[in-house]
Amino acid sequence: MRISTPTRRALLGLALSVCSLTALAQTPAVFRLGIAPHTSARVILEMYQPLRAHLEKALGVPVEVVTAPDFTEFARRMLHQEYDIAVTTGHQARLAQTDADYVPLLTYSADFRAVALVAGNSKFKTAKDLVGKPVLGLSPTSLVTLWGQHWMKQNGNPDTLRYVSASDSVARLVLSGEAVAGFTSLANYQSLSRELQAQMRFLVISDPLAGRVYMLNKRQAARREQIDAALQTFALSAEGKSYFEKFKLEGYRKLKPKELEAMEPYAREVRTSLQ
Predict the structure, then answer these.
(1) Among candidates 138, 174, 112, which has minimal Cα distance to 40?
(2) Which region is the signal sequence (predicted)?
(3) Tens digits of residue pLDDT in 227-246
């Protein structure tokens, strides 16, 4: 039977469509490692490159490190299920757990603390000394900002913080005189150059808080054991040990009982800000 030219074209188009769909189905999905914007995107990409490469090899799929412009947008994207693993501080981790069914995997062994930085020669010693003066935070929904806002109010300063995008900006703006103090994490302070650190002092240091927690998206639940194993082998690798040492993170650990539950008051504030 002779097939007409239009029919041949239709069959050819159908075959090409089937081939394209088959190739698309065989293409591994990109695994998205979402990192809360605790510092600049450039630093985050550099910082998590060793883990990205290790996960890509261990999981056998392309791995992409992504972040967001600020903590509020990161929380919004996290709740919209945009990350396969979200690495964020305890209050947003709690929000991911309760509002989006993410599962906690682990956190860093080093204590996570919020600190208020002032210039080394600053005359300011208390929260009341800062009344009416510019004080910086990272964003309205970052843990260090929320903790700092609470600390100020509890100590007689009702002012609202001003927000910047990265922890190194906090230090530089304080030293330049554009702000009198700024809140950041102890880990981010320790990542500053020795020159910057030497020019600053702590106005206050918080008690330990739930730090950066690795939260697994529910769609990856079937691969949890594989992902857990990949993180543990990274921790034991030369690249992992170098990473922990460089950023003073000390390694990974499992979360303590009720550790995320204790962050619910801060999680509630993030939830309210997103409504």
Answers:
(1) 138
(2) 1-25
(3) 999 999 999 999 999 999 99
Tokens 């490159």, residue located: 49
- Region 192-208: mean pLDDT is 94
Q: Which two tokens stand for residue 116?
A: 């208020």
Q: How far apart are the first and last CA of the chain?
A: 66
252 burial class (0-12, 13-18, 19+ CB within 10 angstroms)? middle
Domains of the chain: 31-111+210-274 (3.40.190.10), 114-205 (3.40.190.10)
Prediction pTM value:
0.84
* 191-229 per-residue burial string, b: 16 or more CB within 10 A, e: under 16: bbeeebeebbeebbebeebbbbbbbbbeebeebeeebee
Report the Cα 3 to chain-centroid distance in Å.
60
pLDDT digits (tens, 9 = 90+) for 86-104: 999 999 999 999 999 999 9
